[in-house]
Amino acid sequence: MSRKVAVVGAGWAGLAAGVEATTAGADVTLFEMAPHAGGRARSVGDLDNGQHICIGAYREALRLMKTVGVDEGDAFDRMPLTLVDSDGFGLRLGHGAPMPAFALAVLRRRGWRWRERVALLRLAARWSRSGFACAPASTVADLCAALPDRVRRDFIEPLCIAALNTPATAASGGVFLRVLHDALASGPGSADLLLPRLGLSELLATPATAWLASRGATLRLTHRVERIERDGSGWRVDGLAFDRVVLAASAVESARLAAAFAPTWTAAATALRYEPIITVYARSDGCRLPEPMLALAATSVAPAQFVFDRGRLGGADGLLAFVVSGAAEWVERGSEAVEAAALLQAREALAPWLAGPLEIVRTLVEKRATFACTPGLARPPGRVAEGLLAAGDFIDGPYPATLEGAVRSGVAAAAAALA
After folding, report:
1. Rounded distance, CA 2 to CA 132, Å?
2. Nearest to 392 by CA among 34, 39, 59
3. Angle made by CA atoms 205, 161, 358, in degrees to the nearest 5
4. Does 337 reside within a domain?
5. CA 385/CA 381 separation, integer angstroms
6. Distances (CA, A) of 348 to 111, 228, 351
7. What is the domain range of residue 397?
8. Same domain, yes or no, for 85 and 152?
9. pLDDT > 70: percent of the chain
């Protein structure tokens, strides 16, 4: 008889757990309180709930998509790592082994003095010799304190906020280095940018739920689980009996369900702090940026760190997505303030490519987009209790709150549930 596994939550972690457990022969029931799967990484109408990207090192996420029938070539615009601004300044890695490509890109980087390029390469070489490790209490700012101001401003700070959604002064140096390690030291293609051409729901949620349903899994959408309780050697979820349960809901929701029998785990889950992300969608008919993604100079009056040309990525012509990471200050100012500031920032930085008026389409605010990835953070483990596992991008692991981190935790939870 196959083992009965309940997965509570159908975000990327829950979908990964459900697919892995189903592939292994388990009888899976997936509970989701929303009317749709995908969690925070989903489509909202014709737009995405935030602009997500992947890198070539996200092998588990790419494997999961392939399993449920998503073709990488259709799903992504894959390109060597390119972080340039609207003036064309920045890093453009070539093909091949990432570390030599990175060194060459730094040497060729326009706009930096020779000593600034050498300083970054020396620091990167030091990180490589150390195995991309650092003291647990180190912030990204600590790691990069010796770098020239311009290198920190133009490269380190945008990369940190993009990868960890936490300002460099507060972000974990250890997690930052782990991301760099996997991008630069994991073989050809690991540093490649994968920019989605499909909507987020099409990228995983829709094909994964169809895949699960076709293989006999039970999907209970619009079902908020109210109670989990022990049942001998197994568990009951709202009265239904299961051998194992995977909590793959948000940290807050999972803590609510685990509070009665896992107080230590619950305390770790509820202690997490969060960083918001704002995505301002605007449209200028006929606009086409020189790159599908450009870095922007964020200041106290210019909120966005990146802009994506959705028209170059399979979306509507002229549709731009301005991403404001680490956006707590702008959340406090309100949507009208961030929209006005983003429009002004765009008109100044993107003037050569704005063919017509730039108008707001929609602004999406995710107040708990990611946990604040700070040094020494005690994240909750994947084991909650005997036979009760947890999955999510907030679960203890080497990655920040990313799609890859969510998928890895789901795969690990499924393996533990079936061990």
Report:
1. 42
2. 39
3. 75
4. yes
5. 10
6. 19, 54, 6
7. 4-72+199-272+382-418
8. yes
9. 100
How far is it, in rounded angstroms, from Cα 162 to Cα 97? 22
CATH of the domain at 317: 3.90.660.50
pLDDT in tens, 376-403: 999 999 999 999 999 999 999 999 999 9
State whether residue 29 is helix, strand or coil.
Answer: strand
In degrees to the nearest 10, what's the CA dihedral of 352, 353, 357, 362? -130
Residues paired with 365 in a beta bridge: 278
Report how far residue 17's alpha carbon sits from residue 268's, in angstroms, rounded to the nearest whole number: 22
In-domain check, residue 376: no
Q: Are 154 and 90 in contact (CB under 8 A)?
A: yes
In a domain, residue 127? The reply is yes
Q: DSSP string spanning 279-324?
A: EEEEE-TT---SSSEEE----SS---SEEEEGGGGTS-TTEEEEEE
Helix, strand, coil percentages in the chain from 3-state DSSP, rounded to 5: 40, 20, 40
> Are 263 and 281 found together in one domain?
no
Chain centroid to CA 212? 23
Angle formed by the axes of helices 173-184 and 98-108, nearest 10°: 100
Quick one: how far is CA 246 from the chain centroid? 21
Q: Are residues 236 and 310 in the same domain?
A: no
Mean pLDDT per block of 10 residues along the chain (419 residues) reads: 93 98 97 94 85 91 97 95 92 91 95 96 96 96 97 94 94 96 91 94 96 98 97 96 98 97 96 96 95 95 96 94 96 97 96 92 95 96 97 95 96 96
With beta carbons less than 8 A apart as the criterion, state whether 100 and 90 touch: no
At 1 the pLDDT is 65
Question: What dihedral angle (degrees, nearest 10) is formed by the CA atoms of 260, 261, 262, 266?
Answer: -10
Which structure tokens are listed for 270? Answer: 């509820």
In a domain, 374, yes or no: no
User: Dihedral sign, CA of 211, 214, 216, 218?
Assistant: positive
Which pLDDT belongs to residue 99?
A: 93
Question: How many C-beta atoms lie closer than 10 Å to residue 68's C-beta?
Answer: 18
Q: For residue 233, give the CATH number of its domain.
A: 3.50.50.60
Residues 388 and 267 in one domain: yes
Q: Say yes or no: 249 and 183 in one domain.
A: no
Q: How many domains does the chain have?
A: 3
